[in-house]
Amino acid sequence: MKKTIALVTGGYSGESVISYKTAVTIKNNIDPEKWICYTIDINPSGWFYITTGGEKISVDKNDFSITEEGEKIYFDAVLIGLHGTPGEDGKLQGYFDCLGIRYTSCNAATSALTFNKRYTVAVAAFGGLKVARSVHLFKNTPVMVSTVLTALTLPVFVKPNNGGSSIGMSKVSEANGMQEALDKAFTVDDQVLVEEFIRGREFTIGVFKSGGNVIALPMTEIISKKEFFDYEAKYDGASEEITPAIADPSIAAKVTEAAKKAYDIFNCNGVVRIDFIYEETSGYPYMLEINTVPGQSEASIIPKQVKAMGWSLQEFYSALIEECL
Q1: Which residue among 47, 52, 58, 81 sits deepest, i.e. has the most Cβ atoms within 10 Å of its Cβ?
Q2: Where are the domains of the chain?
């Protein structure tokens, strides 16, 4: 008997536009022989399922169900394709935990932790992974630019501490550009991370669990045509993404080992994407961040890595659903 799956998309942040693109890719690759899939749009105006006829049906939040043509529909599992809040920061996961509904992403604790970039690198460092030096700033506790510049060496990256898609992020190479970068990041979030620049090759790698085994996808090298891998580079073609990356097997092995170690340290589930800078002088990969609901639009990296591994996307999403069940 087919299981009924809710594909959750949308969100309350600027990343919602990417969530809708992710949902299209996922929905197009759900095996109809195995799963009955309903797309649920969660946005500031409400939680809805839109029928093929265009009718908008509200979700009953008491049990996360919908009623279509008089029939109450419950879901066996939830496939989370919602970037940003509330799908990537643990809020939805906690809600589903309360209802006893299984889902394909990391649990509430891991999602909340990894959504906070500063806490992520702190735990990673405690677990033995290499990370860049950084300073964590709060909007309600002003800090002088001179204090930041004393603690860190330029150039640095200034970015909202919570969030993704590189929204609000800047690279600062000169001291007189620091305040503007901080102001920009604080328009997006009440917390800001200032992180030292690590010179090296940028790699990103997807990791997921299937059959109880942790599997690393072929890694991608990112060569940005801009100064760094910002929103435009990610989604508007201003970067070159090489999948699988052309790298010495020893480099690939180090990045893969670090990625799988991070997956275990953070007790991840489902598919995550982990970003690294490989610092060639030392020969170490430095972990940047973990994306627990990585982008899966046509322009995104995870679908490319899945295909490079030799799997179809249909096989991949079936594996994610089966693992969570």
Answers
A1: 81
A2: 3-105, 112-130+199-292, 134-196
Neighbour-count burial for 76-96, b at 16+ CB within 10 Å, e otherwise: bbbbbbbbbbbbbbbbbbbbb
- What is the spatial distance between Cα 151 and Cα 158, in angstroms, rounded to a whole number? 14
- pLDDT tens, residue by residue, 298-320: 889 999 999 999 999 999 999 99
Task: Check: CB of residue 314 under 8 Å from CB of residue 31.
Answer: yes
Record: fold of 134-196: Dna Ligase; domain 1 (3.30.1490)
Structure tokens at 297: 């639009």
DSSP letter string over 8-19?
EEE-SSTTHHHH
CA-based angle 318:319:323, to the nearest 5? Answer: 115
Burial 265-295 (b: 16+ CB within 10 A, else e): bbebbbbbbbbbbbbeeeebbbbbbbbbbbb
Note whether 3-105 and 112-130+199-292 share their fold. no
CATH of span 112-130+199-292: 3.30.470.20
- Residue 156 pLDDT > 50, yes or no? yes
Helix axes 313-324, 301-309, angle to 10 degrees: 100
User: What's the pLDDT at 50?
Assistant: 86
Cα angle 134, 139, 141; round to 5: 85
Contacts of residue 51, defined as CB under 8 A and 6 or more positions apart, other chains included, come to 57, 68
> The tokens of 142 are what?
């002003």
Look up residue 246 and give its DSSP letter: -
Backbone angles phi, psi at 245, to 5 degrees: -60, 145
3-105 is a CATH 3.40.50.20 domain: yes
pLDDT above 90 as % of the chain? 78
Q: What is the pLDDT of residues 14-52, one digit of tens each?
A: 889 999 999 999 999 999 999 999 999 999 999 999 887
